[in-house]
């Protein structure tokens, strides 16, 4: 792919081969990203409903633009995705193209989503004691392993937006629309993030989202995301 004399400029882990040099002819056959987010009218309506009551909190936490972005339906170009990942190195978290190495950065995440590049460290939030999100009406959602569609149904109400509904909304948005995960079930670590964001705390979500993107690319390469 690139001249041998430049190999030292393209570091790879010992034994690592780019997917380009190891892919089998049927590697892509029958594979699909089940967790790729799909848009729906019900989700857009829920965004609009909660925004009227909590929009200022979202702006304070610098997540307003990213939440609005979730209302757009972004179709997955499977061929483009797999073609790009043929050049992805899991040891450097970058693409190894003939003209050089290239990869997404924190600034790219900020430009695309509007998330904060600095602020409270997400790892500190996740490391806090306590992990169960208990809403009297819905039970202990942390332990229920509810699917997105079911969770969306039970989280909306016809009354004023409550603290519990706002937490439910943020939990769904983080799990389904923001982070890459191989499961269609809720990401349990998002419970603590939902509580922090509902309080308007300024979290450094851009670096955390970038690391999650790296992890997602690695999972696809290792065929655990399919």
Automatic annotation (TrEMBL):
Coiled coil: none annotated. Residues 62-224 form the Aminotransferase-like plant mobile domain. It comes from the Eukaryota. It holds the Pfam family PMD. GO terms for biological process: meristem maintenance. InterPro entries: AminoTfrase-like_pln_mobile, MAIN-like. PANTHER family: OO_BA0013J05-OO_BA0033A15.20 PROTEIN (PTHR46033:SF56), PROTEIN MAIN-LIKE 2 (PTHR46033). This is Putative ovule protein.
């Amino acid at each position: 792919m690139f001249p041998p004399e430049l190999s030292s400029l393209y570091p790879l882990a010992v034994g690592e081969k780019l997917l380009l040099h190891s892919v089998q002819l049927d590697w892509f056959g029958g594979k699909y990203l089940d967790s790729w987010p799909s848009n729906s009218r019900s989700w857009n309506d829920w965004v609009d409903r909660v925004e009227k009551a909590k929009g200022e909190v979202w702006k304070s936490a610098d997540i307003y633009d990213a939440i609005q972005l979730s209302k757009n339906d972004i179709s997955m170009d499977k061929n483009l995705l797999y073609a790009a990942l043929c050049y992805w190195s899991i040891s450097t978290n970058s693409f190894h193209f003939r003209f050089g190495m290239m990869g997404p950065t924190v600034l790219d995440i900020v430009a695309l989503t509007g998330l904060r590049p600095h602020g409270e460290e997400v790892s500190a939030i996740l490391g806090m004691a306590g992990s169960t999100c208990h809403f009297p009406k819905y039970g202990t959602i942390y332990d229920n392993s509810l699917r997105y569609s079911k969770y969306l149904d039970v989280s909306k109400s016809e009354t004023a937006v409550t603290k519990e509904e706002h937490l439910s909304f943020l939990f769904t948005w983080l799990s389904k629309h923001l982070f890459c995960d191989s499961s269609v079930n809720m990401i349990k670590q998002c419970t603590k993030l939902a509580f922090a964001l509902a309080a308007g705390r300024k979290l450094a979500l851009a670096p955390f989202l970038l690391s999650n993107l790296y992890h997602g690319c690695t999972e696809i390469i290792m065929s655990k995301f399919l």
